[in-house]
Amino acid sequence: MVWALKLAALISVVTTISIVVILIRESIPFFREIPIWDFLTGTTWTPNFNPASFGVLPLIGGTLLVAVIAGVTAVVFGLASAIFLSEYAPDKLRRIIKPILEILAGIPTVVYGFFALTFLSPQLQKIFPEMIVFNALSAGLVMGLMIMPMISTLSEDAMLAVPRSLRDGAYALGATKFEVAIKVVVPAALGGIVASFILALSRAIGETMIVTLAAGASPNMTFNPLESIQAMTAYIVQTTLGEAAHGSIQFQTIFAVGMVLFVMTLAMNIVGRIVVARWSEKYE
């Protein structure tokens, strides 16, 4: 059993190293032709035009715009759900509601994408008439709904791990149930809550089908959520399914964009570990 566990751990490490090696190896020919500074700071992304432009900022901006909308949506509803389940809901109600919330995480992302495109966008157009069908707002809201169970479940587990004595002490000082939840339990479980948010946001940044179907394929350098954008994952899908010749500069952009995406998620996980180590509380 020990060797089986070691093998499982080794497989994950080897897989991660292999991915990094492939991304670096395939990105090197691209950066030999395109300066990395021009790639990271350029504001125009037209790799299939003549002359071509390879500024990745529009893709990064589109990815972050959708991820921020999703993150705000998921934190608001996910944290509220976690507080209700851990502090207010009776055990019987918790056993019913929690599995229902977790079902949202099992719905295929392509279904979320079509839901955003065919239902949510037309509804939002009634509120924002200037909004087009493909937009960042509907993609971000639906993505937030998708990652909400991750924040809700992990945050609830962190809150349930807070010792009962902290709650009892706060009640003895005259705090209300809401004050105990917000001012005692949430700060005590902050490390787990932040970890759940970082994990969910990393999931949102790497999401493909929702942004491909609902956000559009226009690499615009904009922060207006009512406009069409293109995320990095959506571009990778578009180019992979297109007619880019293997070995061409257009094909190599897939790995260059993938490398940027990998660095972003890696940086988020490093920041998450630092935050968790800084604010985590250990109880005995």
In short:
The chain has one domain (2-279): Orthogonal Bundle (MetI-like fold).
Describe this entry's structure for a reader.
The protein is an all-alpha fold. The chain has a single domain, classed as MetI-like (MetI-like fold, Orthogonal Bundle). It is 75% helix and 1% strand. The protein contains 12 helices and 2 strands; from the N terminus they run ααββαααααααααα. It has helices spanning 2-33, 36-41, 57-88, 91-106, 109-127, 136-160, 164-172, 177-188, 190-205, 209-215, 232-240, 249-279, and strands at 45-46, 53-54. It has a two-stranded antiparallel ribbon. The longest helix is centred in the first third of the chain and has 32 residues, at 2-33. It is globular and about 70 Å long. It starts with a helix and ends in a 5-residue tail after the last helix. The mean pLDDT is 87.
Helix content: over 70%
| CATH classification, class level | Mainly Alpha
> Strand-residue fraction?
under 5%
Multimerization status: single chain
Strand order of the largest sheet: 1-2
User: How many separate domains?
Assistant: 1
Distance between the termini: 30 Å
Rg of Cα set: 22 Å
Q: Sketch the major β-sheet.
A: 2 strands, antiparallel
| Total DSSP E strands | 2
* Class of secondary structure makeup: mainly alpha
- Low-pLDDT residue intervals, each spanning 5 or more residues: none
Overall average residue pLDDT? 87
SSE ordering: HHEEHHHHHHHHHH
Indicate the overall shape.
globular
CATH topology: MetI-like fold
CATH homology superfamily: MetI-like
In the CATH classification, which architecture applies? Orthogonal Bundle
Q: Helix count, per DSSP?
A: 12
